[in-house]
Every structure is written in C-alpha cells, then in structure tokens.
Specification:
This protein is of the alpha+beta class. It has one domain. It is 23% helix and 27% strand. The protein contains five helices and eleven strands. Strand 8 and strand 9 form a beta hairpin. The longest helix is centred in the first third of the chain and has 16 residues. The radius of gyration is 17 Å and the shape is elongated. It starts with 12 loop residues before the first strand and ends with a helix. The C terminus is likely disordered.
Length: 230
C-alpha cells in the first residue's frame, strides 16, 4: 500500500501526517516550554495531555479532516482505548501496523473541545528508567527527550484517500484511524504534548480562513514563534 503525499488524490493508502517543520529545543524562543517540561518528575508514571487532531483545519500537509469522519473514528477508537489497545509509537513508521518494539505510549482518554480532539496519554517507561535512568525502550527515550527540553508533538496515522474539493485536499469517508504517534513537530496545528491541561492554549495555532494556500504553513509556524518569543 502506498504512503500518500500531500497531493495524492483519489488513491487509497497510508495517511501519515509527516513532520512539516522543526522547532529546535535550543532556540531562545523555546526556553519557556523547556523549563516547564523539566518540572515534570520523570521517575514516576508519566501522564501527559495532548492535542490529538482537529477537524475543519488545514494541517501542514494541506489536508483537512471533516468533522463527521473524525468524530466517527474517535467513537470507534473508544473501544480500542477501553480494551487497552490504544498503543502508539515514537515517530511514524512506514506501515499501518503498530510495531510492539516501537511502542512508546498509549492513549488513556479522548474528548472534544470545539473542533479539537484532546487526549490523555501515558508514557511506557521501564523499571530501569524509573530507578536508574537507563533507556531500554521507546517510552524511556521519549521521557529522556522531554526531560532534556525537547518539545514533542503528536500526529495521527491512518489509512484512506483524499479528494480535491474547492482547492483543498479533503480526507474521504474511507479513512480509518490507526493511532497517534509522538513526533518532533506535528502536522495538525497546535498538536503538542504538555504536562498541564491548562497549557493547551499556549500551543493554539490558528490561521485566517481566507489565507492563500501557499502562505498557510508560514502563518502557522510564525504564530507559534510569536507566542514563544513573548
């Protein structure tokens, strides 16, 4: 099955929201986020919150997830969560299958706030990490990145097709959600991981409805940079 690019229309394949940008943890603008993440006690069970997805908003790949489709898939995902199977990986693979060797976290809960799907996630850290800081699994690696100031994003993985509608690439009804992977920079606007649910507003990224397509990505990243520089 083919991994679909931003403009692969009318083809069924993997819809992987690849990273479309990078925000360096060493940048002066990111010191606020870094200092907040270092306050987390990584030697206990690590529970974090994240913006998982949004409907009706173009992401960095130029794709739009319709409300009805995203809500349908979230409802189906509740059974996966209930059965303890909402496993996800550190970085996107090139397959729709979840590789148990690469699992770093699971989704414990999801809920809607407007057009935003929020989630509660648990990092899978090993006894060696909690006791001695030994990295032996992907969850340990994610915890180490966060402890050292990395800002992680979260990005969906699924299968389906796209259709061009009024100049926009819209995810179609055949879409099936697989999971939500941790990434360095997400394609969904504002989809970052944070330790305090009240911090959600700090990662909000919005763009005017009439913004030209070629300027949307610059607008999203620019608004985040403006926030971080305050």
């Amino acid at each position: 099955m083919k991994i679909l690019g931003p403009n692969d229309i009318g083809v069924f394949g993997y819809l992987i929201e690849y990273d479309a940008g990078h925000i360096s943890p060493n940048d002066e603008h990111n010191k606020q986020i870094i200092s907040e993440m270092k306050e987390v006690d990584f030697h206990q069970d690590l529970i974090l919150y994240a913006v998982l997805q949004k409907f009706g908003v173009p992401n960095k790949n130029g794709r739009i997830y319709p409300e009805a489709i995203l809500k349908r898939e979230n409802e189906k995902y509740q059974t996966v969560i209930k059965n303890g199977g909402a496993l996800s990986e550190l970085n996107h693979p090139t397959s729709s299958l979840i590789d148990l060797d690469r699992v770093s976290h699971s989704i414990l809960e999801t809920w809607w706030e407007g057009n935003t799907l929020l989630g509660k996630i648990k990092l899978y850290t090993s006894p060696g990490w909690k006791k001695s800081g030994i990295i032996s699994c992907k969850g340990d690696q994610a915890a180490m990145l966060l402890m050292n100031g990395a800002t992680l994003g979260i990005s969906s993985r699924g299968v389906g097709s796209l259709k061009s509608e009024r100049g926009q690439n819209v995810v179609q009804d055949d879409f099936e959600l697989v999971c939500f992977d941790l990434v360095s920079s997400p394609s969904t606007p504002g989809a970052y991981v944070f330790s305090d649910l009240n911090d959600k507003a700090k990662f909000e990224e919005t763009i005017p409805q009439n913004t030209p397509e070629e300027n949307k990505i610059k607008s999203l990243m620019g608004r985040l940079d403006n926030f971080l520089s305050k």
